[in-house]
Amino acid sequence: MQGKQPTLPKGTRDFEAPQIFKRDYIVDTIRHSYQKYGFLPLETPALEQLSTLTGKYGEEGDRLLFSVLNSGDFLAGVDSQIKDYKALAPHIAAKGLRYDLTVPLVRHVAMNKDKIIFPFKRYQIQPVWRADRPQKGRYREFYQCDIDVVGTSSLLCEAEILVMIHEVLFKLGIKDFSIHINHRTVLESLAALVGAANHEETLCVALDKLDKVGKDKVLAELKSKGFAPDALARLTFLFDLPATHADRWLLLTKELGPTQVGMQDIQKILDYVHALGLADPYIIFDPTLARGLSYYTGTIFEVKIKDADWGSLGGGGRYDGLTNIFGMTGISGVGFSFGLDRLYAVLETLDLLPSAIGCATQILLTNLTHVSEMASLKTLAMLRDNNIRSEIYPVTTKLKKQLQYAHKKNIPFVAIIGEEEHTAGVISLKNMQTGEQQQYTLAQLLPVLTQSYQ
Fold first, then answer.
1. Checking DSSP bridges between strand 437-440 and strand 427-431, what pairing results, if any?
2. Hey, which of 75, 134, 320, 357 would disulfide with 11, CB 3.0 to 4.6 Å?
């Protein structure tokens, strides 16, 4: 009987060597900047208690949590008359896959508050899982590259994060981007402007979809949630904003007043950014930026590629009070996360990923006879001792087959050691790109290879 064809769960992927090398290049670039700015690494488990995760991401976020089935006979002793799935859920699944890296961070801080040095600056690069509908550029398993500062309300933290975002994107070769910045109190002021001071969360959820669904659908959603049409008319200016940061600032100052707390915070952050040496930041005030996560309480920001339908490359903001649910009060935090998968897609499309990182093995040593095999093994050991990534063909066979193997794996050099080379004490080095072949002694080979990879 023929076995069933294996498949992957929707929204997940296998990564092969060329993709992994390029992803590692992106991660290494990000990690270098994170560490340069004083952030230390942290890793947390894939599994968290569902009680840790639920209620932190808003109603829509909770629906996207992956629950993990309890082991054993989890229904033993459960009242069979229970009809409410919410009452039954803890008996079926008490754990879930992490939805993001911020809530696990806060849980970690709460559990280790007595030994953590505050302000606590950590970075974390790990996968997260969301039961979202898979589509182009959106997966159920994907990687986030987080930084957070916990234990200070200083706006200097926001400024350093914004400067670091510029640094990472410049290093990766991305120049045509903008960082949209807003503040939760600006959104609260907008809600008050339409007479819905107690419903700013509803306004935020709708505005957060503006880029995806457009003005008409946002207004339709707000009307369906009870916002009066004449009140929504006061928000008309939001849907036709000036292009420049300065002009937007003047418009919102006129609409909301010069003493709006959030705008004062943003101005101070921009002053810090300039003081940190970024004279012309790619930052623009965007009063429609809401970000759907309910735990943001202050500044929020998001990175977008200009004139392209890429969505966000990353986002973040300040959260005050998230630790309260774990018994820690008065702890403020701010963070940001790059989406690794989105970054990869953008860099690949813009042809910004270095081609040279697509090869692991630098040189293949041939295996032509038993005698030459021993000579190749001696050469292999010397190359590896000098950090040259090298491998030997594992069985004795024809040279043509071994060269085909090197070609298919994009190995740039082949060291040919046959009976003649062994007798003469030399190695024939074949350049697989040019086809050129030249003989070297073992002592001569290493500097030739080293120079080739400088």
1. antiparallel
2. 134
3-class SS of residue 205: helix
Please state whether beta strands 332-339 and 177-183 pair in parallel, antiparallel, or not at all (unpaired): unpaired
Q: Return the ∠ at Cα 257 (arms to 253 and 262), rounded to 5°.
A: 75
Give mean pLDDT, residues 192-199. Answer: 78
Q: Is the N-terminal amide bond of 119 cis, ω within 30° of 0?
A: yes
Contact present, 46 and 66 (Cβ < 8 Å):
no
When computed from its CA atoms, the radius of gyration of the chain, rounded to whole angstroms, is 28
Using CB atoms within 10 Å of the CB of residue 59, give its burial: 0 to 12 exposed, 13 to 18 middle, 19+ buried. Answer: exposed
Q: Which residues contact 272 (CB under 8 A, 6 or more apart)?
A: 155, 156, 158, 159, 160
What distance in Å separates the CA atoms of residue 234 and residue 193, rounded to the nearest whole number?
A: 7
Which one-letter amino acid corresponds to residue 58? G
> Quick one: tokens of 225?
């949630």
**Over residues 408-428, mean pLDDT:** 93
Residue 429: both structure tokens together: 């080095």
All domains in the chain, ordered by first residue: 17-43+100-349 (3.30.930.10), 360-452 (3.40.50.800)
Q: Give Cα separations from 299 to 196, 284, 336 (angstroms).
A: 21, 13, 11
| Strand (E) or helix (H) holding 428 | strand 427-431
> Of 151-160, 347-356, 436-445, which gets the smallest average pLDDT?
347-356
Residue written as token pair 């994009």:
410
Q: Please state the rounded mean pLDDT for residues 248-267.
A: 90
Average pLDDT over residues 388-394: 95
303 DSSP 8-state letter: E
357 band by pLDDT with thresholds 50, 70 and 90: low
| pLDDT (mean) for 114-118 | 94
The lowest-confidence range among 197-206, 256-265, 322-331, 377-386 is 197-206
What's the token pair of residue 58? Answer: 């808003």
Torsion sign (Cα): 30, 35, 36, 37 = positive
pLDDT computed for residue 240 by the predictor? 86
The letter for the amino acid at 200 is: E
Q: What percent of the chain has pLDDT over 90?
A: 59
Q: Other C-beta atoms within 10 Å of 114: how many? A: 5
Looking at the predicted structure, is the pLDDT value of residue 3 above 90?
A: no
- Cβ–Cβ < 8 Å for 313, 303: yes
Give Cβ neighbours of residue 365 (< 8 Å, ≥ 6 apart): 376, 379, 380, 383, 390, 391, 392, 393, 414, 415, 417
